[in-house]
Structure formats: C-alpha cells, structure tokens
Amino acid sequence: MSIQFDPKNSVFNLHTKDSSYQMQLDPLGHLLHLYYGRKLGDGSNFHLFPAADHGFSPDYYATQNERGVCSPDVLPQEYPAANRGDFRVTAARVNNAQGACGAEFFYKTHTIQDGPYTLEGLPAAFGPDCQTLCILMQDSVLGLEVRLLYSVYEELGIITRAAVLCNLSDAALTLDQAASACLDLPFGEWDLIQFHGRHAMERQFERTRLGSDIRRVGSLRGASSHHHNPFVILCEPEATEDWGSCYGVMPVYSGNHCTDIEVDYNGSTRLVTGIHPDNFRWHLAPGEQFTTPQVLLCYTHEGLGDLSHRYHRFIRSALCRSTASQSSRVLINNWEATYFNFDQDKIYDIAQKAASLGVELMVLDDGWFGKRDSDTTGLGDWYVNTDKLKGGLAPLIDRIHGLGMQFGIWIEPEMVSIDSDLYRAHPDWALTLPGRDPIMGRSQLVLDMSREDVVDYLTDCFTRLLSENQIEYIKWDMNRNMADVYSHALPPERQGEVSHRYILGVYKLIDRLTSRFPQVLFEGCAGGGGRFDAGMLAYMPQIWCSDNTDAIERLSIQYGTSFGYPISAVGSHVSACPNHQTGRTVPLGTRGVVAMAGTFGYELDLNKLTRKEISQVRMQIARYKSYSELIRTGDYYRLNDPAQTRFWHGWEFVAADGSQALMNLVVVHTQGNPRPLHFQWKGLDPKATYKILRVDLQGQLLASVTDPAARRMVGLKYTGAQLMYAGLTMPQLYGDYPSAQILIRKMR
Ligand code: GLA
Hints:
Layout: E1 3-6, E2 11-15, E3 19-25, E4 31-38, H1 60-63, E5 92-95, E6 106-114, E7 131-139, E8 144-153, E9 158-167, E10 173-185, E11 191-198, E12 201-209, E13 214-218, E14 232-235, E15 246-252, E16 257-263, E17 269-275, E18 282-284, E19 289-291, E20 294-300, H2 303-319, E21 331-333, H3 335-338, H4 344-356, E22 361-364, H5 393-402, E23 406-411, E24 415-417, H6 421-425, E25 444-446, H7 452-468, E26 473-476, H8 498-516, E27 521-524, H9 534-539, E28 542-544, H10 551-562, E29 570-571, E30 574-575, H11 588-595, E31 601-603, H12 611-633, E32 635-638, E33 648-654, E34 660-667, E35 677-679, E36 689-701, H13 709-713, E37 717-719, H14 720-726, E38 728-730, E39 733-746
Parallel strand pairs: 21-22, 21-31, 22-23, 23-26, 26-27, 27-28, 28-29, 30-31
Antiparallel strand pairs: 1-2, 2-3, 3-4, 5-10, 6-7, 7-8, 8-9, 9-19, 9-20, 10-17, 10-18, 11-12, 11-14, 13-16, 14-15, 15-20, 16-17, 24-25, 32-33, 33-34, 34-39, 35-38, 36-37, 36-39
Helix pairs in contact: 7-8, 10-11, 11-12
This protein binds alpha-D-galactopyranose.
C-alpha cells in the first residue's frame, strides 16, 4: 500500500520506493504538510506543529482558543488560500459575490483507491501502477469544496497532484488564482534550477541559490514558452549529477504557467505551481467546478541524473499515451531544404535520394496549402495549393509511398492569416481586442480556441485531411505568442478565462485527432521548442526541440531539455552547413552525433551533398538504426555542462537492461597542442567486464597518432569499475568540432 492513513494521529503517509510524503490534519481540520523527502520507515508518524514565533502575523488558533500561539503564516500547508493570515505565496485566491476575498479549507473526508485519477479536459498521467488519495476539503462559509488529488507511483517514484474546486453555494464565486499544488519545505537551503531561453535558444540551464525573496518562473505568452520552461528543480546546494537531494516540479500544462518560490522569514521554503494567476479570473457559477492542471513531483537523494531518469521513465511509460512513435524510423523534412519554394518534383527528388540512403519518412513542411508562398498569407485555408502540388496531395503521397517511404505533413491549426478565406469568413474567430487594430506576430493572428465552433471546424478540417490521405505523421506547429487576448464569444465576466479555455480547446482538438488516428505519429512544435512541456507530451510523443539546428548550439539546448524530458521526445535533425541560424560549419559526422541525442532525421537536400558526404550519411543512418533502441529507452547520463566546459561535452546512454552503453563526445573548442580527452563512464556495473565494440571518430586524429588509435581501442576489455572510476582517454582529436561515439557491451 503506497498510501496509508493513521486515524490516531490524523496522518497521511504516501510512500514511493524511496521517498515519503506526509500530511497531517491539525486539531481544527487544516491540512498541514509535514514532510517530503527521503523514505522514512513505517510507522514514522510525527507531529509537526511549530510553536515558532509568528512575528506580526494573525493567529486563528489563538482566536479559537484551540492551542497556544501559532499563526497560519508559519504553518506548512497543502493548499493555502489568500487573506486568512498566511502572507506567503498562496494556492487559492477566492472572492465571493460581495467581492470579499478569503478562503479557509477544512478536512471533510478522504478516499484511497487503486489506479490514477483523470482530470476533465486536461491531460493526466495514466497507468495502473499507482494509488490515488482524494482529500475532500471545504470552506462552508463560501460553499466551496476542494478535492486535493494525489496519485503515488511507487515504482517510478513520482507523486502527481491536482485540485478540483467546486462551487456548492447558490451564488457565483470568482477564482483569481487556483494553483495545482503547494509544496512547503520547512527546512533546508535550496538552489533553484530553471530552464530559460528565447526562440532558437530554448531551455538554457540556470542554477541559482534561493535568497529571502520570491522567485517566479512563468509565462504569460499563451504557451509554456521558449522563455521559461515550466519544469523547475530545487536541490540542495551541494547536489551534483550523482549525489544529493533534488525535487522536481513538472506541470502537465502548455499554457500560461507560474511557479513561485518564496523563502519566508522563518527560513521555510514554499513553492506554489499552477496556472499563472495574472490575466486569470475564473467565474465559478453555482454547481460549476474548476479543475487545475496536474503537476508531477519527484524527489531523489541521488542527484540530478537520477531525477532525470525518473522523469524520463515516467513520461515514456505513464504520460505519453500515443502508441505511434518514430522509433527507428529516420525522417527527412524539406523545410531548410526549400522553405516555401517547392513543387511536387522537388519534394520527390529529396525523398528519392533520402529513400536510397535508408530514410523512411518524408515530411512536407509549411507551404503546401492555401495561398502560401511566404509566411504572410494562407494560414487557416487547409486545402491543397494546386499551383505547387499539381493534382493535389494524392499524387505526391503515392509517389512517396512508391519509394517505400511514409509520408508526413506540417499543420498549424491554431493560427490564421488575415489574407485567408477563413479570416475573411470569420474575423471574429481570431483573438482581437474590440476597437483596436490587431497586433500581428509572424504576420498571423491566433484563433480563439476557447470557442467550441472553432475547435469543431478544425476537427473537421484535419479529420478530412487525415481520412482522405494516407498520412503517417503530423508536425503540429504554433508560431506566435498571444496578445489581444479577448474572445468575441464570451461575456465580460468570463474574459479572464480565455487563456485557459484556449489551452482546453487545443487539448480537445489534439485529443480528438490523436484518438481518431492513433496510428499517426504527431510531433509538437512551436517555432521550434516554444511549447516543449509535459502537457503536449501526453498527446504527442515527440516535439521539435528548437529551430536552431546548429549542432554546437544544440548541445546546450538539448542538455537543458534533458533534465526533465526524455531523449525519445527530442526532435533533432542534421541540417546543412553553413548553418542557417548561425552561419557556422560543423562536420557532418558531428552533426549526426548530436542529432542522435534525439529522434534523428535530416533537414536538408541530400542531392546537394558530395559523394563522400553521401556515404557518411548512409553510415550515420545505419548507426542510428542500430542504436535507436538504446537511445530511446536507455538511461541518459550527462557527463558535463556544455556552458561550463571550454573543451569537450559528453553524454552517455546505458541500456535499460545494462547490457550495453554508448558514449558520445564532442570537442567544442580545439586547442593548440590539445590536452588528452579523459572521460569517465557512468551507470555501469562496477564488477562486470565490458568490451569496446565500436569506436567512430568524426574528425581528424593528430598527425602524431599515426596508428589509428580508434582501432586500437576496439576489442579492449575493462571492468565497469575501471571505466567509471579510472576512465578512458581518447586519442587526441583536432580540427573543427570533432566528435566520437564509443559502444561497449557487457560480457556474460
Ligand atoms: C516553425 C517551425 C519550423 C518550420 C516553420 C515553418 O518555425 O519550428 O520547423 O516548420 O515553422 O513555417
């Protein structure tokens, strides 16, 4: 049993394999948070009721004569609400019909059952291997009930949380905030790790010490954003990849999100996570309920690497519901090869060359529909542009299938161009402010996905596209952030609901299409990785990681992404050089090594490569196919931080059954008289013996290394202890960005 209730002490105990989460009801019925961290033994109930100085704060215990002096301002709470004496960041801000803000929730009852909970209209983790606790709390003055939901995945080490608020009164209530969860860490000092960025430079790792203030990681862009990924980590200051206490907080949400972290005057740390409270106001009519997004919590005492492994496994096995996956299919996309300038023959030529080298999926990107010769027109008109594709999609798809390839296509359902038939017919379907000229982004407007009619229209469009054509893959893009957030279909008191209703509409559309076409692989995208989050991953098993395809810049983008999200989800392609985003030239071999830390594909015209490059591509594809299982399902180890190293960056995959491991090394800065590249493996069995099966060097060996050292390494045997503790030294590599892949196998 991973969830127990001790009625004597009113304590809830939630246990995963190696962590414990405890809550307790206080004598008045408030739900206090006692502990989340390394596993406690059975029966380790304890009573935490700090008689701490309550400073200048009010004290509802004293007024009710229940206990000595203890303010809500110092109590760790599971779901605090504003304006009742707790001045820290809060989970709920509720107003009654008179405009009075204030709520206080008291325990009513609870249930424990096997299996997960579901959330109306929102993605949530599934999987039978969990238990769910539902604690029913109520504020009888407001007539507001809150169901706090916890699912405990004992083996996978994840606890999910969400809240459902239900108005049982006969007057409307207004929610100015309804967070998914509050997590109080009464003791300890913590570092905050967050993943910030910008378009074409997403998820940059940043680690800072928390101080006595409030830190906020959030987005008001209508999407989880390139700028502040919703995933955050709190870890002890000494924590490393391999050691130390770490807490992960991963919202399963793709819209405006917010995580506030406050260190209060008692040194206690509070984290509140959920929908961003700014630009949010939910009108809760009598009988209505509001469901918050889910958040995935994870604790480990074994460092950041272990935290990542847990999230990777969890997302793959309990969150991604799609059974379609790119698996070892290698993809080619025409975007950087042609942009908008293509016709059927050009696409076919790219596909034909790719097929001859082992590529199995041809993806036709933007520009195939409506009047779409640039990014200024045509969005919304989801019918084929027959000037470019004579005879429609069918002849092209037939020719691609004739090559033995599958066919994929790009769509951007949530957007509309002003120059489009759709906008001319339905100008009120776009988010625009009455009386103002709309603010354009990439020359397009955002459709009002909070409207049922818009979602139904798009459902029909794409159901038709997928039923009338044999399409095996969809790239779902979203290329601007929201402004002018106003729905022409909602009354004034519901305008604060638009951003969240928008995301509910997006989820509804994706849910319909992915359930109707389960065999189709959907890849998410938002100007690259502007909506790379667990909400999207619940429906789409992979997401285009960044519009930046420069292999060296990708190192830090993919490094940051790897902390929370599995490698199988990271869309990554080999593109042409000089790179279109940075102008840099990186050897083809190294571009391949970097793209293999993801779904692997190409985004260039292979017809333009030299014969030597073509044979390299053939080899890369063969290599990827042989490694793909290991890459997609193995444990991923980061060897160092690309932002901190001036020499080389490395990462490693270890097979789930431990039978093999693949090391990847990229020299990011070639020095004169280079130092030896010495590296230590991770995640091996120290007692087992491993044999080096293959060494691929991409780049040149120093002239002094005349005997190909790589070949010398092949066949050598080492124990796991030698490889992990003493490490190996690579032959000296030089030139522009050389790299290496080394495959080892465990001997029986
Ligand atoms: C976005 C995507 C690109 C490409 C273009 C097409 O920027 O991230 O990969 O699909 O749109 O317009």
